[in-house]
Amino acid sequence: MTSDQKLSFNRQIIVRVLYIIAYFFLVAGLPMIVGDDWGELAVYIGTGVAAVLGLFLFRDRVIAGLKSLKEKRLKLVLSVIGFIVFQAVVVAIATKVVPGFGDSANQSAAKDAINGSLMVATILTLAVFAPIAEELVFREAMMGWAPGKVSLTIATLVSGLLFVYLHASFTLTGFIYYLPGTASLIAIYLLFKRNIAASMIAHIAFNSLSAIGVVTAGMG
């Protein structure tokens, strides 16, 4: 690696670290600062800002990824469908085997929010902004920098475990619930050669289906 390449690599690392810090401040720190009265709205605004900021910082990667997918659209669609089926099977089996499975605090909060007064903002956040921001943080920022197999393996484990940990409400059933989805998103990101656009589209599809399911159940 030449001196110019090292400088470019170091700059990439700095940008990724700063974005990760900004993300957690916007989606976790900001709601704590404004308090309970404005906390929910702060989460939506923070997530939206984090998504826009990430798209700006990693715009070259996102644009290149979208261009690459033009000839791989069928592969992406089949991959997304396949992983949705995989998740559905795992969840169905776990629901029968694990007591209290699927009743995590995170899931309950999401359902309450979707059926609440800010339904439109909630759906947009969960189905669009959150998937974009989370993929840019947990996949691109945490995994995209890794130059070799060892570093990529370590980055993948750290990213995956942290993603599940933050979504699982610190419970075993929550961990089991989110593990298949997390593994699916990581697999798609790696299957398409670290194409962040592919994992973002897949994540949006997963979350959109979940949101539709919650809304439909609430109307029933």
Automatic annotation (TrEMBL):
Where are the membrane-spanning stretches? Answer: 13-35, 41-58, 78-98, 118-138, 150-168, 174-192, 199-219
Annotated CAAX prenyl protease 2/Lysostaphin resistance protein A-like domain residues: 119-208
An example Pfam family from this entry, by short name, is Rce1-like
Q: Which UniProt keywords apply?
A: Hydrolase, Membrane, Metalloprotease, Protease, Transmembrane, Transmembrane helix
Q: Where is the signal peptide?
A: none
InterPro entries hit by this protein: CAAX_protease, Rce1/LyrA-like_dom
List the GO biological process terms.
CAAX-box protein maturation
What is a GO molecular function of this protein? Answer: endopeptidase activity
Please state what the protein is called: CPBP family intramembrane metalloprotease
Q: Which organism is it from?
A: Corynebacterium pseudotuberculosis (strain C231)
Phylogenetic placement of the source organism: Bacteria, Bacillati, Actinomycetota, Actinomycetes, Mycobacteriales
